[in-house]
Every structure is written in structure tokens, then in C-alpha cells.
Fold this protein.
Amino acid sequence: MEAKGQVTAEKYAADISSIREAQVRISSFIHRTPVISSETLMLLLEGIYSLNVNVSRKAALSLAAKLRGIPAYIVVPKNAPKCKVENVKRYGGRVIWSEPNLRSREDMATKVLQETGAVLLHPYNDGRTISGQGTISLELLEQAPQLDTIIVPISGGGLISGVALAAKSINPAIRILAAEPMGANDAAQSKAAGRIITLPETNTIADGLRAFLGDLTCNCQLVVKNCQLFEDLVDDVITVEDKAIVEAMRLCYEILKVVVEPSGAIGLAAVLSDDFRNNPAWKDCSNVGIVLSGGNVDLDVLWGSFRK
Amino acid sequence: MEAKGQVTAEKYAADISSIREAQVRISSFIHRTPVISSETLMLLLEGIYSLNVNVSRKAALSLAAKLRGIPAYIVVPKNAPKCKVENVKRYGGRVIWSEPNLRSREDMATKVLQETGAVLLHPYNDGRTISGQGTISLELLEQAPQLDTIIVPISGGGLISGVALAAKSINPAIRILAAEPMGANDAAQSKAAGRIITLPETNTIADGLRAFLGDLTCNCQLVVKNCQLFEDLVDDVITVEDKAIVEAMRLCYEILKVVVEPSGAIGLAAVLSDDFRNNPAWKDCSNVGIVLSGGNVDLDVLWGSFRK
């Protein structure tokens, strides 16, 4: 059997070197994200798993630009959570509104580039973004080298690409599982179909997970053939209902004492799901790391979701 | 001028040795609490301070007892937040209800001791509790040795006694400031009067800070004379309004991404207060640590407080 997850440098838009370079570049601006272990969550999981949670608190792009004195224009869909917009402004970013669809976002971004001469930094479909996100694995595995599995939210695929590239470079045997909301399950459908599936619409509370796989993450530099990403780097996709996401979010608040948005809590929802726990393929996952990212919560909306 | 804050072993119910012993004893059961630094909070403070926040996530007594197979009876006032009661039960504690006043709590505790032969562990008026809480300073100063000031919530005085004892043993020059809600400001009043003041009632959202200074923390083994605690260990008391507490709690959620209860956020409220920032006495505090403890939040109540 050919080893799954072997990572070579030329194949993808990012690799362990570009990820380590990103780590060095950002090291003076960021704080090392703590890994949280929870006895209580382990009890909830009937003591099966040793659970390590990496809480990602990435320095916002706006802040990074501000620290270097560069203007940052952030294209934001009109239906973005208020708190995300406020965070962009707080860190000095200039908000450019778009309609809440991918086409309008790309059109607005193109317009901004033309008018300002700015350089595009795509939120996931960009080797630099993927390299930066790969630093999560470096931090996580430095603090919890015993992990045999990492669960990562999937949306555009940038986060999981970076995490998988770095993790499998360090430990080729490590399993990378994607967690995806049922109402935006294009990755699961793409995996089943063996080609990129783009959904006509999405319906999930996890607003950060409504994007679709990009060509870099799914069918261009990052892969040999369409959706090779899954073959190479992602061992499986676990889909979860919004209700389970909200329940996982509540556990994060009540047990881990960590503020995460729905998109950020989905990895915990996946670990707690029957799909994961009863699947014989994951029976020997005994040291599971979960990437919780991010933490932009509208407190009013949060309350509404807990009340449902 | 006599050096303030010199700590000798015999004087108090706890000291740096008992605190280090506590640390060793609990080391296999707890996880090191991460210190969080925040650029954004520093920006809010106009770049004056370097801010380190110690997020306390103490293993609950119930859990400690459960791990050792000992029954734990926890006397809980009827008006305690639902989540605290649920946490006690989750960790295997047996809840004994009392009326919401100190007298009834002590009566119920005495009754339980008589009926069960249990041993009393007072929530703050006990050298063992104080030693355990002192481990917070060990963790904090190991991770942020540059601190010149630590701000700690004050209620019964156990937490601040432990933190101050350990911190001043390690660095006698370190300043210890107490943060107290305006509606339960017995420590500030006691300090001003030079004797213990007990309030007829308290009125604050910070339910964890409604207790009064105990005799150990204020006038018995821990002190030479009444309220010597303040002379020896606490450099000042900063009182804050509930509104400022809620605002600080919101900042913890939105910026630090940490779940704290109102009592836990009060130290941040104190740092942000004009009383602290405009006081010439604290002008040279340039590396401030804040103890955020604890994180028992009723999510429904939280939402209500943010909406006000």
C-alpha cells in the first residue's frame, strides 16, 4: 500500500518550508496559541480519547497590515457577522462591502485592485495564506507531539491544506479529518463524486464555512488531478448538523471556557458525533487534536442560537 | 521606609512553601493555565501597559474529590448561578442547599460535618485553600516574570492572599491590587476604616465577590492585627461599577476569546478604570498581570447583562 499523506515540496502551493518561513516571519507579532487539554471532555467521550484543542487566535490581516503601515482593504459580504466587521475596523482595515455571494466578492476585490493598485491576498486560495495557516500544525505538534489525528474545519480548504501539509510533513502517519456542516457539505459531496461539486446555496449557522473549495486547494497547484487534495491529505470528511455545532459551541464555553464561533466549534462537534465515534476506521484514533478557529461571535446571535 | 510586602513563613496561614507543596501535589491533576497577552487590549490602554492575563481554570474541588474517590458535599446558596451548580454536579459533588447568606451557609456546613463526619474545607478562610490559590502566582510569574503589578479580584480574601503571598515571596517589590465591585466594597471600606467592615447587604452582578473578608484572611492567623492583610500584602483596593465589569467581560469575550464570569472580569475592569489609570501612585505600573477567575457563566444571564 502506498503511504498516504507523503508531502513533496514541488507539488503544492505551500509546503513545510514555506510554512516554517511563515512562522519565523510572524513570530514577533503573534502569541503562541495555547493547547488546552480537557479532562471533562474526555469524560464526555467515555475516556476513550486524549483530547487536545488548539485555539487559533490568528493576528488579523488588518492588524498585520496596520503594524507595517500598509492600508488593507477587506471585502466583506453584507451578511457578515457584525463583530467580524467591527474587528476588521478595530484593527484598522477598510471595509469594502459586497453582496453575499462569491461572485460579487471577487468582482469587488478586482475593482479594489484596479482602483488602488493593491495586491490580492485570497482568504484561502493562496499559497501565502495556506503557509500561514500551516503554522497552526507547528504550534500544535510542538505542544502535543503525541497526536495521531487532527480535525480541522473545512470551507475554502486553505486552513485544512496548511494544517495537513505541515502535519503530514512532520508525521506522515497522522490522520487529517475535515469537519463540515451538513448545510454546506460540498467537500463531502466532492469527495464522493471524485470531482468538485459547487452547491447552489448553503444553509448553516457556521458562516465561516459557507465557501467552496478553491482551485488552488482542490484542482490546481495543490493537487495532481481534481480533488486529489482528499486523496493526498484529507483522510475523511465528517459532516455535522447545525444543532451539533451549537451544542459543541456550548461545551467550548462551559467546559473549555473558550469563545468560539460556530465555524470554530465544528471540529469538536465532529469528534462527538456518532459518525466519528462509531466508525471502525477511526477506532484507533486515541490522541485527537481539534483546531478551534475562529472566535468572532455576535453575542446576541450566540444567545439566540443557544436558546433554540 | 520599611519594605512593604516582606513575607515571613510563620506569620500567615500559608506561605511560599505551602504554596509550592500545593503545586507539586496538584501537578498531575491540573493543566498549566496559559498566560494570554493582548496587543489589542494594550492599544485600548493607549500603549501604556504590557498586559498579561492569567486565566485561572482551577480543578473544581468536586473533581479533585472524585478523582480520589472521596464524597464531596458542597454547600451552595439557593441563588447561585445554575451553571455553578451544574458544574458541581458534573464533577460528582453532592449539592447541599442553603439560604443565600453567610450565616445559613455556615449552619448548613456545620450540619453536614456533624451528620457525615466530613472535614470542612472553607472556600477562602483556610490555609489549604489559600495555598492552592497561591499556585496561580507561581504559574503567572513563571510565564511572565517581568510583571510589576498583579490585579486580583477580592471577596473573601483567599484568592488575593494566596496570590500576594506567593508573588511577594518571589518578588517583594511587586504590587498587589485588589479589584472589588462598588456594590460589595467591604474591603475598600475596611481599608479606609482600619478595621473589618461587614456590609448589611451586597448588590452586584459579580456573584462570586459577595463574600466578606474572613478572619483568617483579615484578622486571625494571616495578620498581626485587624486588617493587617492590607498593610502587608495588598497595596490598594480599586472599586468598579457593575457597568464597567460587564464591559470588561465583553472585552474578554470579544478580544481575549476567553469565557469569564463577572467576578472573573473585574480585574480587567479595574485596569481600564480612571481610578487606576489616572492615579499617580500607579503611574509606573508598566507590566500589569490580571487574574481572571472564574468562568462560570449562565449563558442566558450573560446575554441579559450585555443587552442592558
